[in-house]
Amino acid sequence: MIQGSIVALVTPMTEDGAVDNVSLKKLVEFHVEQGTDALVAVGTTGESATLDEDEHCQAIKTVVDYVAGRMPVIAGTGANCTREAIRLTQRAKQAGADACLLVTPYYNKPTQEGLYRHYKAVAEAVDIPQILYNVPGRTGCDLLPETVGRLSRIRNIVGVKEATGKLERVRQIRALTGDDFALYTGDDASSLEFCLLGGNGSITVTGNVAPRLLREMLAAALRGDRASAEALDAKLAGLHDSLFIQSNPIPVKWAVAEMGLMGKGIRLPLTWLSEDCVPPVRAAMQQAGVL
């Protein structure tokens, strides 16, 4: 089971919006050096919604190749079309990904039965470990604990990224799944409590900017050391908030560029961070000791 700090990696781009593989390699090396536990390639933070299928799959393969077995790589392969999700998951497996992360189908708002059948179809079509991803604030549908419990009985569905910020779901989902089913939070601000309650780690945005500190905080929480985890998380609190001051990944891409790890590239309809939002992000980076 993958545990700890799983960074939802930004996809670096040039100012004209092309994927920047030179900076992508720099980011991979940065996370290896900083001790990040695993990377998610081309998830929400990686701008999956604006990459076409070939770009999406090539970016996954590039991350896998650059990592070269030094940490697990989880590929973002969710889609609101089941056939497309199957195709992306197949290509991620071919690229060498260790697991896939599949967001709930967005916009079309399926029922719980529809969500169950969607994930079951992908799992049966592609024999690779698969992690469910529930983020109703973005998708318009909520994958309920009871449905997660049903899906956990499918052999290669191995975990869930629960991004509602509802801490009671740790207990609810754990009771319906068992200890060998991984529970990851997608809400940085509550990741400390999530792990203290029995979660297995965080698929994190903050980890793009302060990876070592975030990993140390989560490691303390996972071993039940509340005092150490709280002391570390106090340094990260500003990032947890300011990195969502505008739509993700706008603030985090600005922050990573400010660290000199990539250029100022993002794809429409997303835009570069507004000038009035720069001071709080910069102050949070200083608080975390990364500037």
From TrEMBL:
The record marks T44, Y107 as: Part of a proton relay during catalysis. GO terms for molecular function: 4-hydroxy-tetrahydrodipicolinate synthase activity. SMART domains: DHDPS (SM01130). It is found in: Cytoplasm. Its EC number is 4.3.3.7. Coiled coil: none annotated. Its main location: cytoplasm. Homotetramer; dimer of dimers. Belongs to the DapA family. This is 4-hydroxy-tetrahydrodipicolinate synthase. It comes from Methylomonas subterranea. The gene is dapA.
